[in-house]
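Teaching assistant's notes for section 4

Start the section by putting this record on the projector. Ask students to predict, before seeing the second block, whether DUF1295 domain-containing protein will look compact or extended. Collect guesses on the board.
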Amino acid sequence: MKYFTPLMLFIVGWLVIMLTDSLSQIGLFNGLLQLVLFTFVVCIPTWRTGRMSYVDIGWPWGLTLVGLLTWYFAEGNSIRVAVVSIAYIFAGSRMGLSALNMWRCGHLDTELPRYTYQQRRWQKAGKTNTALAMQVEAIIQGLANASFLALPAFIIATNTASSISIFEIIGIVIWFGAFAMETIADVQKVTFLREMQRLNLKNKVCNVGLWRYSRHPNYFAEWMVWNGLVIAAIPSWITLYQQESFVLWLLLGVSILLTSRLMYTT
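Reveal the predicted structure now:
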């Protein structure tokens, strides 16, 4: 069970979506399509190569999928639906295209350091079946896209109100600011790596631009991107009080907060 226990939280998150009247249909389609995406893009390549780096392709394109499904299925205010859908499509596609470029250039032919470190953590926890642990980890990423990470988009897209809440404005401002910071940080890192390659210097620490103040400004900004979405979802979650049972409504609220917590932990 120690291999499968981490799956439980995400399965519960998806079941909460499936039990609601407002989100069950889009939740079902998203869950099935995430399963197909991760099976062919992540799980099978990971099994054949023994490398988990393919998660970096599957996860962002899964977010793009969430955006597309939201735009197609949502019945809320058209402007609100368009904004949140584009946010997911834009963010997911940017990271997805970057990952595909890494794959094209051969950077995924060896395991990325963070996944090598993850294997050390598994060994320390007594998970000696690395192949199984990799598959479970890949499935967790897919379930995250099917549950907690999809919730802000799905909930926002249920809101039919034409008036815009101050929370939505604050959330979108945070999203744009964090997305800009994340993009700038990534550009600065790539520029630094190319300069080091040109000078034939190795094992140098990137301490330019935003990287001078934070070891991972792109990670911090990615977390703030999700915090922006969580904040923007608050007014729409409140309106769902009239449509869902109190217990499910409360569980949806807790799940939105868990989105921020999970991204912070990640």
